[in-house]
Amino acid sequence: MSFAATPRGKLVCSDFFVVRNICPHRMTPADTSRRHHRRAKHTMRIMQIVSGGDVNGATVHGLDLTRELARQGHEVTLVCRPRAWVRYQSLPAGVEIVELPLNYFSGRDTRQISRLIRESRIDVIHSHQTRASNFALAMKLLTGVPSVATAHSRHLEFHWMWHDHVIAVSEATRDFHRRFNLCPSRRLSVIHCFVDTDRYRPQPDLVRRAVRQEFGVAPDEPLLGIIGQVCQRKGLIHLVESLRLLDAASPRARVLIIGIEDPPYAELVRQTARNLGVADRLIWADQRRDIDRLYGALDVLVVPSLEEQIPIAMLEAMACGLPIVATRVGGIPECITDGVEGLLVPPANPASLSLALWNVLENGQLREQLAQAGRRRITEQFSRERNTQRVVDVLAEVARRRNSKRWFRRGTGVAPRHAKAA
Length: 422
Known about the structure:
Blueprint lengths: L2 E3 L5 E3 L4 E3 L8 H12 L4 E6 L6 H15 L3 E6 L15 E4 L7 H14 L3 E5 L1 H14 L3 E5 L13 E4 L2 H9 L8 E3 L14 H11 L7 E5 L8 H11 L7 E5 L4 H14 L5 E5 L4 H5 L4 E4 L8 H8 L4 E4 L4 H4 L6 E4 L4 H13 L1 H18 L2 H20 L19
Parallel strand pairs: 4-5, 4-7, 5-6, 7-8, 8-9, 9-10, 11-12, 11-14, 12-13, 14-15, 15-16
Antiparallel strand pairs: 1-2, 2-3, 3-6
Helix pairs in contact: 3-4, 7-8, 7-12
């Protein structure tokens, strides 16, 4: 494998993939000194593998975690698929980005990454989503480097049991993987996703007015929001059906829909809205980069999902001081106590959903109580500092177990970490 330097300090692999975002002066004596200082503080060399192509909860969490690990001084390599969403997001200097199809049946893909793992002396591999999980296992077999996988979904897939540790994003996810994917309890833990509370915070009235003006929403119009992929699992159609029932109390309530559309399902939602006479109440905003601003324009965030793990948009909205109306599915009840941080309703039940929305929209005091309690819960239990450290503890323990058994190193061409130079 050969690399060519570019003016901006990128390293372009002449074989297949690209490594970029490497600090141009990375190998100066000063940087070498800083690196040795970081190593003395028990930092790690971590390979993060994120296989999702579009923006979703798993890719956002993988990106945020990569940023936090790098800010803590860990040496991070981020592996993603070509043209993936995470590739185009900002990252701290020094994070290496590798683009690869992540085909674990491809000899080229596996050889290139296994060589990179050895040359970079990676301590632990951390994967997100199924394709990344399978690829990480292939790398574990080829290099002996241990793998940790974060489970963002609940599907019957037995490969999860072969990881050194599995992090579930909710108790419901952990229980599923323990019962159906046969993951041993001793190698399972629950670490919820986290929120950057510096970015996601209550917005001033100036932002609220500006965003509402952009979408043509009057200052006194009730505005509901739903954020996430427009697909059947997210239950948007049930929110549309609830609008008709909500007319008696809030005839002017509108819905801001933000997210990538699944075309057949989005068309079904549009047709249902036309049949119910509420099509003009829906504002289709597609995917946006300024989500933190958009939360400031909303009165309520609605999560009408039929199945969920931990919806990151819900956590972000709580951090922004928004009341939540959500369905009682998956990991949502682990984040919201009914009547405290939000209101919970049964899934696929427009009548219950409309009643909960009416209670929140018509009761200003209740909205304020839910908003304050939600913000408080995020800062106490879902902060980036707290939950990133919990992930670091898992990665460090897995890496420590590997370092204590030197036979993991056989065939890698890498000396044990603490071996003295001859």
